[in-house]
Amino acid sequence: MSSMTILMIGLMFFIMAGLMTLLMVIVHAIKSNGNKQHAKIQIVFPAINWMIKVLLRLGIPMTILGPMKLLTVRGRKTGILRTVPVDFYEYAGQRFLIATHGLGNWVYNLRTEGEGSLSLGRSHQTFTAFELPPEEAGPVIKEVLGPLFASPGMRGSILRRHFGVTADSSLNDFTNAARSHPVFRISSSEVLSSQPQVTQIN
What is the pLDDT of residues 55-105, one digit of tens each? Predict the structure, then answer.
């Protein structure tokens, strides 16, 4: 394969990542406007979400949306491994998963299993998880996402609507927001160089 071909493939992936990121941001913005566009979201969001997973599997970081990684955790009812993009943050020497979109299935699955794996491209790391009580999760959300809540951009606007707080909200407000936006502190158990077994993407 020539260097030009490799360059073109890289450029295609770069453009695809940019387009998918913009589409994802637009969908999040639509979701934050209530049920007005619910029918459109049901059609568009799953397809875009799937493409985001594909890009993360290829190792293309979605930096505009935040430090996202793929979480794989066993389904609490089916026992099948499920994979979903999640927001991953590092703060004060610790690592956290924050449910920025609320109580999704991955939250309930991780609560039940207490362990899972994170991946980006071929990098794969297993971990154990501990859900912080709201009194501890609130300050983490305030410190980690505080600069974004203060941002005038679209991402800041979306986060403010999701959480119902602003950068100037009280610590008690952040504690209340944490009740519907759980925070998990994770500890690594093993680092692997290859991908885990094929999982159900949903």
Answer: 888 887 766 667 889 999 999 999 999 999 999 999 889 999 999 888 989
Of 146, 56, 130, nearest in space to 94 by CA: 130
* Angstrom distances, CA of residue 79 to CA of 12, 108, 198: 37, 13, 14
Residue in this structure with the two tokens 């890009």, named with its chain if needed:
55
Residues in contact with 62: Cβ distance below 8 Å, sequence separation at least 6, in sequence order:
17, 20, 21, 24, 52, 55, 56, 68, 85
pLDDT in tens, 173-182: 999 999 999 9
DSSP calls for the chain: --HHHHHHHHHHHHHHHHHHHHHHHHHHHHHTTTTTTHHHHHHHHHHHHHHHHHHHHTT---GGG-SEEEEEEE-TTT--EEEEEEEEEEETTEEEEE-TT-S-HHHHHHHHH-EEEEEETTEEEEEEEEEPPHHHHHHHHHHHHHHHHT--SHHHHHHHHHHT--TT--HHHHHHHHTTS-EEEEEEEEEESS--S--EE-
